[in-house]
Amino acid sequence: MSSSLSVYVLDVAATRALVGSGDDALLEVIRTRFQDDLAGDDDYFSHEIAQGAPTAYDALRAVLHGGPFSDHAHHAFQYGYAYKRLCALTGSFLPNDCFTPHRGDWLETVDRGLKDLRITAVSVSDFSYGVPPAPLPPADTPGCGVWTPEQIARALEEFEATKRAEHAPPLEPEVVEAVMQCLEWMRHAEARPGHGLIGFRS
Questions:
Q1: pTM score
Q2: Which conformational region is residue 21 in: left (phi greater than 0), alpha (psi within -120 to 50 degrees), or beta?
Q3: Distance between CA 149 and CA 138 in Å, rounded?
Q4: Which Pfam families does the record cross-reference, listed alphabetically (predicted)?
Q5: What's the domain range around 92?
Q6: Which residues share a beta bridge with 200?
Q7: How far apart are CA 33 and CA 199, in angstroms?
Q8: How many domains does the chain fold into?
Q9: Mind listing the pLDDT tens digit for each residue in 151-200?
């Protein structure tokens, strides 16, 4: 089974602030813009919805109102996908061809490549094992993680220091390509003051 990453550059704090904001006007915008997407997800997850999971729209409403959330742990995925839709609406999607699809321990492999280049401030595995902001309940899927503006600034500084030291360990070509894509993501964020990255693994 393969997985994928979806990474967005956005104002992390502003996006997190939407959770529990009670912004019904935004809810209506999302329902209109993502109407086909919401219906498609309801069809895809029809079995889970029949078992009591919220619809995609109901999950969005709960996220924007800070609850109520289902007590059933197996329903938490809907709130993660709802938060992903908020990120898609407020952020810009970044190229992810080095990570979609991916299998096995690919994210950890790329993290080792970053560390070999002495880049330690960020980890692509964070997009797999992180959780959405409180009070959203955690879920295994989608994984959700954040690279803050401060982490990104440090990581880019670490990369520049590695370049100055002419520290170039041998890496597999596909790992080099993936690391370069991570650096492109960070440069997109760096070009927008106050912006970071939120990524989802599904």
A1: 0.93
A2: alpha
A3: 23
A4: DUF7691 (PF24740)
A5: 5-201
A6: 6, 144
A7: 21
A8: 1
A9: 999 999 999 999 888 777 789 999 999 999 999 999 999 999 999 999 99
